[in-house]
Amino acid sequence: MVSPDGLPAKADSLTPPLERGMFKSFFRMGMAHATGVGLAICRNKLYAIWLGAAGIGLLSQLNGYLTLLSSIGLLSASKGISKYVSEFRAKGRIEDVRTLVSSSLCVFTIVSGLILLPGILLSSTVSSLILGDPAYGRFVMLATIPVVLLVWKGVLDALIVGYKDTSSYSRSGIGGNILAFVTLIPLVYFWGIDGAVLGFITTAVLSLLVTVFYAGMAVRPEKLFVRGPRLMNFRLFRPVLYFGIAGVICGAAANLSFLFARRLIIEHPGLGLQGNGVFQAAWGLSHQLLPLVLVCMSVYFYPRLCEISDPKSLGRETLKGLSFAMVLSAPFAALVIAFRYELIRLLYAGGFVGAADSLIFMMLAEYVRIGSWAFSNAMASDARLRVLTATNVAAELVFCACSLLFIGHFGQMGIALSCLVSAAALTASGAVWARCRLGTPILSLFSLRVVLSIILVGGAAVVSLLGFHEKILIPSATGVWIATLLVLYRRRH
Asked: Does the structure show a pLDDT above 90 at 4?
């Protein structure tokens, strides 16, 4: 059976309760991602001291550019690779798994190579576009080189996830992050911004080597690569290509829109690279802390949805996962909002406290985005790639329009407000799709524990904006929220 988008239909299977699996995944993956976040925070702190806000602003633009090229080179097809590796392996089609991985490596190497050459040859032009100065051309050239390595790493990471080997996946992340940090810090200390840019290459090389090792551990009973005439099989690769086309459009839209917003900050009077670096502090904290919860749960949540073929069952499981994610994320969001000044001073420097108010709206945006995370996973598992692409692109257009409108009135905080509006639009469109396609009763999401979680996060934002004893009220409210949930849990069980 084939879905309307040309992808194979899914088979149902017996699985443990969703919340238990997500909770288990959260703790298994939490250590790996916490290590990565901790090292990233230490790195940003040292960058803030050694390079200043302007240096961080420059590196954030280069990193965004590299992320954009990598998403295009991999065609953002990681979910497709993981999905079909898992399905083929469950059916005992090991040869097809090998062929799919080899086909993916061949195609994505060619695509990333085609991206690499223009990026190097036109580095000065790209520097003018994203940094407003062709003098940074050599930095753009160095930041382009790791594209192929990151694409290979992405394929192998997807392979490990497809094998559901959370142990190898977490160890790969921890090992790669530690090695990258150990080699990056001396580069920045001795060579400043040049060393930081060179660190893009060393980080990619070390991360790839660690991933190759653990991918071999995950598939140790089987060969990792295919030799012979079946090195490339387009019939098997074609479903992954569908995911890739959707992913590259969504990824490119997201990265281009954020590069556009950062360019607005750079060109805004009184902000420039300094203002972009300050905004990067708010963006970095919001993306390193709250999404950690979602990433840890996704290793279980997405494969679980892929096993469901009945639309109503898919809708129920999506709402269960969304409810659990909203509850688990609420205290993280509230406490970050409450202690944002202390976090910024601790993790960056005193010169970045201007990002504090923007961080409130960024955390609200990330909390609202939990809804789009759940609905997007449901769309991908149901192979509704056209809808997934359209909703994401529309949300990025909303973000760009709001950024143009708000930055003149609110400065860099206007970009944070635009993130919140965009996240709300994306979540709302996902909810409409779930209601129409899956018949999901959206109002059933708002159980007492979810309503209390929303009140906790929203109340934390209001109290912080008013400056009304936030460091006392928000932690106290979080304690009451935890106690209330424990009482509800005991009554339920």
From this structure: no
